[in-house]
Amino acid sequence: MGACVDQGAERHNVLVTADRADSSPPRARMTGPERREQLIKVGRRLFAEKGFEATTVEEVASKANVSKPVVYQHFGGKEGLYAVVVDREIQALLGGISAALEEPEGARVLLERATLALLDYIERDPAGFRILVRDSPPGQSTGSFASVLGDVAVHVEHLLAAEFKQRGLDPKSAPIHAHMLVGMVALTGQWWLDRRKFKKDQVAAHLVNLAWNGLSGLDRSPRLATVRKR
């Protein structure tokens, strides 16, 4: 008799629990834009951790708790998702550097600001920087770190050209020096990302010291000592 009462009470508790579960409000479904942003966030994290090649649509879908067709619906595939992620990182990086070069200041101040802008981005968003410095997928001609550096160098060219002209140097060589400066800062930033042995301001100070003191002592007609004149 006691066992029957216990079993009846147990069934009653199960039914009450089920009724409560059924009466709980359903989870709100994400809107299209919300789902897209969620997938971008998930993809960004995976691309930063594993790179483009090692990341799969299946993994993106699993992490976002959706089916694979949802990813294809929003981006057409892994390449489309990657392109959106990279484009956002490019805009974030170029936006910071462009803002640093907007105000008319002396060349050294602008050099310091641009250097700090890149290092600020690396410090603030190391995952985004890792995405940019990884290899782009095959066949993609834009969005790679090389194209980012090229865009930054274009911003620097006209500043160097004006500085060269003022110092009596050939302004036509400004594009060469712009790419050298940007490459030097970017490669050092890449090294600093994994080896934080120096503070950001120290890294920037050493970069500017090398770049500026080298710039101030440029020869008008540089030649290689090991190459004979033709």
TrEMBL record:
Which InterPro entries does the record cross-reference, listed alphabetically? DNA-bd_HTH_TetR-type_CS, Homeodomain-like_sf, HTH-type_TetR-like_transc_reg, HTH_TetR, Tet_transcr_reg_TetR-rel_C_sf, TetR_C_32
Query: SUPFAM superfamilies, per this entry?
Result: Homeodomain-like, Tetracyclin repressor-like, C-terminal domain
Boundaries of every HTH tetR-type domain copy? 33-93
- At the top level of its lineage, which domain of life is listed? Bacteria
Keywords from UniProt, A to Z, are: DNA-binding
Record bears the keyword Magnesium: no
Residues annotated to bind DNA? 56-75
The reply to whether Transport figures as a keyword in the UniProt entry is: no
Q: Which PANTHER family match?
A: HTH-TYPE TRANSCRIPTIONAL REGULATOR RUTR, TRANSCRIPTIONAL REGULATORY PROTEIN (PROBABLY TETR-FAMILY)-RELATED
What name has this protein been given in UniProt? TetR/AcrR family transcriptional regulator
